Amino acid sequence: MRRIAGHFGEWLQGRSAEGPLALVTVACDALAVTAERLSDGPLSLDQVPQFLTDPQAARMLEALGKPSGRYRLRADMPPGGGAGASTAALLALAGDGAPDALARACLSVEEASDPLMHARPDSLLWAPREARILRRLPPPPRAEIVGGFFGPPVRTDAADCAFPDVSDLIAAWEAGPDLATAAGIAATSAARTTALRGPHDDPSEALARETGALGHLRAHTGSARGLIFAPGTVPAGAEAALTRAGFTGVIRFETGGAA
Prior knowledge:
With 259 residues, the chain is of the alpha+beta class.
């Protein structure tokens, strides 16, 4: 059985000074996809929930010269949640491989990819529509995230590049921000995308104020939303506050630093 951890939205995402859409992902080992090859034979997928089509799975295996067969896939995160379900599923299905080759294969299937094939995906400035590293970055500071999924799923459209300019935020991130600064960068990136793309009833900013969070983050495509805290400072009732606000799948996890 192979397990591939997902992510949980982004610290920042938008248009970069280099031109391509760029992001810094939020690593999240609490959510993952597992894949188990059950037998030889024609391609057959037993998956819960449904996040890959048979043609997508076939293209991924063919691109890497992997055998078909019967596979069982299970995901902890919803499709369209902005938590990397489809990329993680493709990687779990494919098994071992060089990161660059896996990235190219993911791109050939979906025309976009999260950087989950890399050992430290949150230490990269990643071009998701090109599935390549733009620059290596300092790792994000250690943080505790309380998050969930708000609103309907939003699948990535590879042709959609209507995101705000975040070149200033990328420059600030490259300086190696402390957690308070990183949370401010994340909240600014989230607010810019919400102003441009919605949803305009997103309660994340208000929840950050209510709970005393350092800031908030979001999936810039997808429904994942999170509040950012220093480790060990999450107040009692934070998860309940998200549930009252209409979040589903509420989780708490650590990210960044040595997490």
